[in-house]
Amino acid sequence: MRQIAEFVAVLTCGLFTGAAIYVSLVEHPARMECGVELTATEFPPSHRRGTIMQVTLAAVCLLSSIAAWLAGATFWWVVAGGLQVSVIPFTLIVILPTNKQLLNPAWDKRSAQTGQLLARWGKVHAVRSVLSALALWVFLYLAIFTKPA
Fold first, then answer.
1. What is the pLDDT of residues 62-116, one digit of tens each?
2. Would you say residue 147 has pLDDT above 90?
3. pTM value?
4. Which of 20, 27, 39, 67 could staple 129 via S-S, CB 3.0–4.6 A?
5. Using alpha carbons only, what angle is made at residue 56 by residues 46 and 64, rounded to the nearest 5 degrees?
């Protein structure tokens, strides 16, 4: 049970991290090259799909890290899971105000302010990438360098 829970925690954290880094380094910069209006038009469906995937991955990561701890793993598994799931409150507190404006159907998709919001979104999303990468680093360290009891 413990090994399965640890595997699921590492896997879901790795998938989240990969997706977050891809968005930060590839998807968002590429869509920004297409102009503000097109970027603002593409943002809502991309955001909707990404939210479903990433909330699910973060939640499963946390739950499996708790399961690993309950099955005998060190408490550091829970710490890593907490670090991974910290992207959710970060998103709700820091990114949500920007998201609400960008997702508003009445928002002017051609305005200079939209371009500023999209640029800001890219910067604050990068924090999510860093948080998840740190969590993945902790998980990998634990998986590789700690021995089962």
1. 999 999 999 999 999 999 999 999 999 999 999 999 999 999 999 999 999 999 9
2. no
3. 0.93
4. 20
5. 150
6 half-sphere exposure, CB direction, 13 A CA radius: 21
- The number of angstroms, rounded, from the C-alpha of 6 to the middle of its chain's C-alpha atoms is 19
Distance CA 133, CA 140 (A): 10
